[in-house]
């Protein structure tokens, strides 16, 4: 293609919607063949590049950038590249939509062979001035980072003359990056290269801060993303950059120490890793200055419950002692030893002793000075302990010390005069035990170079006997190999020749020697005994008897069971039993089951017995609490719970304890609810376990229920019937079921009277629930013969004054009937709707509707209805929506007290809106045209009345234009109503609905933008609740995603309003308002996605 045809070609592109891919190949071939040069292409592209339409300018820039990417790196000369750099730098001032193509051009130019020496000096100042990296899309930011990396790789000398200006530009560009993939590229590729090759000048702290803001990394990847970046990936990538420069020491160490004091495990582990890395990376003098501070903070976690935190502390202390000068290391080690000295010297707590000794050994293993101190301090203590009671764990610790001293650090222990025991005594101890202990063989293996000839001969006797008895342990084989390697002649003389002679003698006598196989013996023992749990005798005292132990994954001995506990001990014995029961080390189900049985037997016992609990004071409330813990532990194991019920008759005993200890005037709510929870769990498990014989379960429930009914009770004791009736199947066609149902129906009048007359809200609530359960489970409620006839119930409720008791009772009765799908439910619902016409009763009705709409669970609410009609919430919503809108319409027509009308309208609107969060999105979207005006008017009513009564948040002392000035003659009844009713929960739900609607970007939302802006700004500026101010700001944030044409008239108003919120007292609010301002500020510079 000739140069003359270029203009015609680009003119045709101007009118086409797309660019043919063959165009790029033609342009590339033309440049290679020198038919035209790049300057001619740019000149002829002018028809696109200077076009008034930004889309055509974008197309022209895209063509040029892609052509550059197809060229060889040596294709363009210095003059052409200088021109292109100037062109792209100028283009940076163009429309934001062209920026991605400009970046592509810079990317393709950045590593051209003949790029001018001062090319970067011209390019980057223009980029840093006109290009805001963090306001770009994710892929565009990634492309810019790659440009920086490319330039650093190919021409560092071209970048360094820019000095601190370039450093500041890079810092500014990466500050605030949030995308995990971009962060991984920064942490692993760009930032390490940048820190390695550039001096930070006066910007050390700024550079450190832009990385420190991510520490510790708090990130959760998206679910079901196969290529997700994990939190660990980000943390591991970030860590080396925080210690990349020596000058970062003054910032990194205080940061890590601050985060180490956090309660979060992630923060602790990452802080310990950072401090460990700091020890190896930063100058020794910096570490020396901070060593005491580091220890003072780290020591609090040296015996932490979490193994990862403990491991991190040990690695940190090891690093400290390794890098510090000998004097400093010795001093610090002495401080650490003094901290753990008591637990080591007294050995009161064996677990703590083992943990601390292991810590001392690990942190000192690379420091000769410290390891000497460890040996001098610990070897005598371990020697004495092993002499008193043989213990493999202590021998292993001693072996580790000997191994490190002998083989790693070349410390001659036999020459240490500071050791308080004779060296030969230690050797003799090993010889005494090694015939039966493989651990002692390991120790002798480490000590082989310390043994004299006589001691080695004793060792050869042990090896000889081991070979004869087929001692096959790996420790024995290792020991044999070591001595054979270092003392070959002695092994031949003392082991091999005697064995050979014995074999010859055996063949002569033809008497086969039976050799015991130790492995088989061990296997037999393992089959006979459970090696995971063991006991040991300790001196009897007034505090404890023998303990049971188990080893954890690290081999540490942990007590898991205390047999008895006299009054002298502060911890009650039953609490110790419960802790044993929940001990994570115990996996033996039979052991736990037996232990649980002991606790249950105690909890249900009425008098002290001869068990291990005989010293304890018995408290029924505490016992029920412990019983509930056990029952909850086995909640999913129906066979175990059934076993407990059959063995101990748990349900009957719990009911007896309940009836004996609960009175109408004195009772504990937690005790009552714990009893209900236990009965629910046991009966449910019994029901599911004995599914083949449901009649036996029903009989049990009937027996238990009749015992209660015969008590002739009419108070809080009625509540214990809830779990019983909740677990009986009234549909079973058995005569005894029918008789029991009849008895329950006749007793329901007592329950009804108690619910109405009680002065106790707790009794009122749960007797109402009890009556609702009966109504939901019994048969025909329309029969005139039934005691529970719904018409008579409705008449009775209507005849009573509408107070709190009646409101709660009516709510639960209505819920049981609507869930059952009762035919006459609309008349019950109509009572609620009618009561909403009264402004005094509206708040109570709203609480009733909350009861109707929410889901009840056995675990959370201690009951659930058995008969549940499908889509009952949709049925309720459909009825309420139509009738409540009629209420509002009739209220609007009335020319009565305007303030009372406002209250009635608000209550009716809220009665509709509280149902929405329990409905599927399809239902809400289907009614959006009806709901949206309701939501806005509801928001207006709350803002115009309650919110301005509360006063402002201290940000904006004047109300927005939409709020009228206070009227001194405002009706005091309205003020009183809003002062006594808090609508914060309703407002929170309302704003949550707005957020969901705004996220959907429905077209109908554009009609209400003006209302949205005013209401959301007013709440953000004036509401006293932190969460509600944030919710309003989130609404404004998502509002900015609507059509830009509709939003632009409100941009300045929103920005001016949000400026007032920037001074909010709460950091979370300020953080949200900054994000929201960013979205609105760039509103006209972001292309409309629609």
TrEMBL record:
UniProt GO BP: DNA repair; iron-sulfur cluster assembly; protein maturation
Record-level GO cellular component terms: cytosolic [4Fe-4S] assembly targeting complex; nucleus; spindle
InterPro entries, A to Z: ARM-type_fold, MMS19, MMS19_C, MMS19_N
Entry keyword annotation includes Nucleus: yes
Subcellular location: Cytoplasm, Cytoskeleton, Spindle; Nucleus
Residue ranges constituting the MMS19 C-terminal domain according to the UniProt record: 677-1039
Residue stretches making up the MMS19 N-terminal domain: 42-300
Keywords noted in UniProt: Cytoplasm, Cytoskeleton, DNA damage, DNA repair, Nucleus, Repeat
Primary role: Key component of the cytosolic iron-sulfur protein assembly (CIA) complex, a multiprotein complex that mediates the incorporation of iron-sulfur cluster into apoproteins specifically involved in DNA metabolism and genomic integrity. In the CIA complex, MMS19 acts as an adapter between early-acting CIA components and a subset of cellular target iron-sulfur proteins.
Family: Belongs to the MET18/MMS19 family.
Quaternary data: Component of the CIA complex.
UniProt name for this protein: MMS19 nucleotide excision repair protein
Organism, scientific name: Cacopsylla melanoneura
